[in-house]
Design brief:
Elements: E1 7-16, E2 21-31, E3 34-45, H1 47-60, E4 67-72, H2 75-90, H3 104-114, E5 118-123, H4 131-142
Parallel strand pairs: 1-4, 4-5
Antiparallel strand pairs: 1-2, 2-3
Length: about 150
């Protein structure tokens, strides 16, 4: 997408089969021509949680403070991290209408994962042909745990 310089590029995506349902997440880290793919999944989750896990895993994989450009197709993660997080914390992890923040466990972990880094966020439209976004989408879908549809005998 652009020259790498001394910046880590982090492409992330999450996917769910049903929402809630089994889900997968994936992250692609690129730094100075090297790449690392990360992925995982959960049996019972939501798409938003998988989107968050992708970013968390990518940031937690970094061994030192870095300048990171995060590419995500999730407005939820992007706005949560850049617009909503400070207010949620100020209100004791409550929304503006005093409801508990959904996924606060992961928002707290994401906040911790972001702290050592200088982060620049970029939103990309999902399923629009952006090669690295399509790549993490495929990895996230492949990481969705497959449930055995065959019933077990008692």
């Amino acid at each position: 997408m652009d020259d790498w310089g001394d910046r880590v590029l982090l492409f992330t995506d999450g996917a769910c089969s049903g929402n809630p349902g089994p889900g997968g997440w994936a992250a692609l880290l690129r730094y100075r021509g090297h790449e690392k793919e990360l992925f995982g999944g959960e049996v019972d989750t939501t798409n938003n949680r998988m989107e968050m896990w992708a970013v968390i895993a990518g940031l937690e994989a970094l061994k030192r403070a870095m300048s990171v450009r995060i590419y995500t197709d999730s407005q939820y993660v992007l706005k949560g991290a850049t617009e909503w997080l400070a207010g949620w914390k100020q209100r004791g992890w409550k929304t503006a209408d005093r409801q508990p923040v959904k996924n606060s466990d992961l928002w707290r972990r994401l906040e911790t994962a972001m702290q050592p880094h200088q982060i620049e966020w970029r939103w990309v439209r999902g399923h629009s042909g952006v090669a690295d976004n399509e790549r993490v989408d495929q990895l996230a879908r492949a990481a969705i745990p497959r449930l055995d549809p065959t019933p077990t005998e008692p």
